[in-house]
Specification:
Layout: E1 2-4, H1 7-19, E2 24-29, H2 35-47, E3 50-55, H3 75-84, E4 89-91, H4 95-98, H5 117-120, H6 124-139, E5 143-146, H7 151-162, E6 167-170
């Protein structure tokens, strides 16, 4: 397993694999990996030649009063779990790598993001959609694997990815 922190290095690995005819499955996470993440990795590993997993605690999806700093992080444990699932590339970027100085572009969810959870967590889905689109542009997978613990988030992500070149598998 290769641990990658720079977006350009991740993109280069992905492009080399694709030039060799290898398919890439991608599981984006915020870490604190659990059985649901592992099942997505297992499926992606089975269905693709290459498995990329990201662990990135996204500051954009935390609102006022939500504790970004206290979000659980255990990179060593997450790395071990990714290795046990046959991950080829573990993408561990810093916030600065994802959101460099001067970054200002965001993906807004529209009216669907303003109801239910979006109504009580303003800006949350903008943060989620923005980071997932940025990760897709870096990893360039053939298939994106998402959990469905949050139906609203899954539906919003499927809409965003529908305009992207890849497929989405929600489990």
């Amino acid at each position: 397993m290769r641990i990658v922190s720079r977006p350009d290095a991740m993109r280069d690995l992905s492009r080399r694999a694709r030039r060799s005819g290898e398919s890439i499955g991608f599981v984006p996470t915020m870490g604190a990996l659990h059985a649901g993440h592992l099942s997505l990795m297992h499926r992606a590993r089975y269905e693709n030649r290459r498995l990329a997993v990201s662990v990135f605690v996204n500051p954009l999806q935390f609102g006022a009063g939500e504790d970004f700093v206290r979000y659980p992080r255990n990179d060593l444990r997450d790395t071990r779990l990714c290795r046990s699932e046959g991950t080829d590339w573990l993408f561990l970027p810093t916030p600065r790598a994802i959101y460099p100085p001067g970054f200002s572009t965001r993906v807004t969810p529209g009216p669907m993001g303003d109801v239910w959870e979006g109504a009580i967590r303003p800006g949350h889905f903008t943060g989620v959609l923005t980071v997932v689109l940025k990760l897709l542009e870096i990893v360039e997978p053939d298939t994106l694997y998402l959990g469905q613990k949050d139906a609203q988030q899954a539906a919003l992500l499927i809409r965003v990815v529908a305009g992207h070149a890849g497929q989405v598998r929600a489990s």
